[in-house]
Amino acid sequence: MADLLKKSEMKPGTVAEGGTMAKLYTGSWRTYCPVTDFEKCVHCMMCWICCPDSAILVKEGKKVGTDMQYCKGCGVCAAVCPTDAITMRLESEMGPDERKG
Amino acid sequence: MGERMALTGNDSAAYALKQINPDVVAAYPITPQTELMHKFAEYVADGEVVTEFVPVESEHSAMSAAIGASLAGARSCTATSSQGLALMWEMLYIAASCRCPIVMPVVNRALSGPINIHCDHSDGMGARDSGWIQLYCENCQESYDNTIQAIRIAEHPDVRTPVMVCLDGFILSHTLEALEVMDDGVVRQFIGDYRPAGSLLDVDHPETFGAFSLQNYYFEFKKQQVDAMAGVPAIIEEIGEQYGKLTGRSYGLLDPYRCDDADVILVGLGSTMGTAKQAADDLRADEGLKCGALKVRSFRPFPGEQLRRLLKDGAAVGILDRAISFGLGGPLFHEVRSACGGAATMLNFIYGLGGRDLSLDGIKDLFRALSEAKATGHAEPVERYVGVRE
Q: Is residue A2 part of a domain?
């Protein structure tokens, strides 16, 4: 905790900067990791609507992956996918390059 | 000098709020506080204040709205009683930890159950660890005076901590009393403009309000609250003295009455202490019993050191508690005894729960019981439930 601010350096009651959630890596809570088969994905955006963490990444109206900083691996996206394009895999058995959602 | 008016405790606090003219007031009705905000709503409707009045759907929402407004940079107030304060509970801690200088009259009433609308201090005692400052009022003049001073205390740059102004339900809230009020301009000058430490709406200087903070920072935020509270006693005294210069009514942390040469002293909170002062006068005149009364105005922060100095001379001390910490006894008693080291004869009189009256004669009996305990050395039982049919 050596790099953390001391009490005397902190503004009372608030954090003296905005956007501090961006520094949190809550994706570390994940056990299962979503994997999207883009051959099957029809970009219906059901996963985007239902994701409780707003972690579905979209570019120009198309799903491009999942934000692994916030995805908790709950599996809602896989459950609602009408084309079964998303599978949940045990993350400990996956390589770092495979964790794209 | 100000104007003399006849006001109830509720109306005197509402009148103070009118003169404070807060930016935002959010409130929900609950007996016996209802008339306080009813009166304030009249001031809003009549255009006597510029306050944004938010009638919310619960006390949890009232405190939430007051916190949101406070973080947005508004001077914010609310008021409540009993179950309403209990419903605010989780938000009380958030107001204190976000350092929102909210001022809230709390019209003290028993907590259910059994359901009861009358005065005791179990609501206030339930919130004593929430990080709020608590001032207790003896009469309707004090509910006016304390509400105005509470703004200065809460908003002091070294404090930035919310304040409860506690006044006894019905006994004060619904009792008409002749009291003195200041001119609006004098109050405005005394409290000054509110200068928030930051604002949710200041997009040029973004901050994180209500932050998520875990093992890494939570403890430091809590210690900041401890440090701020440690400085509050001196600030309460300083503001109470300034208020005295303005009005002739000075305030401190404690209000000792004829304690200097007293053999027996009753310590307590709120309206009962007015009766205790009268009982002390009567017993000194009629029975030659040297009685004193010591009112605790600031229960949080608790002025333990100041109490210890006032009670050091070996007088027998009776502590009046209008609340119970089940499995412990009276909360005020245990804090006073802890501050004083337990050397003197001390009795705990638990009284008045659910609004049961403690009369002038009843208080005289307590002074006599103290005197007997001191004379005989028999202080058992220490914990005494006044007037309970066993």
A: no
The beta-carbon neighbor of B224 closest among A1, A12, A21 is: A12
Structure tokens that stand for B159 in this block: 């404090």
Cα B310 from Cα B316, distance rounded (Å):
12
B160–chain A Cβ distance below 8 A for any pair = yes
Size (chain B), residues: 390
**For residue A22, which residues of chain B lie inside 8 Å, CB to CB?**
none
B95 shares its domain with B215: yes
CA dihedral B96, B105, B187, B43 (to 10 degrees): 120
The three-point CA angle A32-A38-A40 to 5° equals 100
B198 to chain A, closest Cα gap in Å: 9
Q: Does the interface predicted TM-score (ipTM) exceed 0.90? A: no
Q: Pick from A1, A4, A15: which is nearest to B211 by CB?
A: A15
**Structural domain range at position B334:** 255-385
CB distance from B214 to chain A under 8 Å? Answer: no
Strands (E), chain B: 3-7, 24-27, 52-55, 76-77, 103-108, 133-136, 163-168, 177-181, 208-209, 254-257, 264-268, 291-296, 298-300, 316-321, 346-350, 383-385
pLDDT tens-digit readout, B321-334 = 999 999 999 999 99
What tens digit of pLDDT does each residue of B334-388 get? Answer: 999 999 986 689 999 999 999 999 999 999 999 999 999 999 999 999 999 999 9
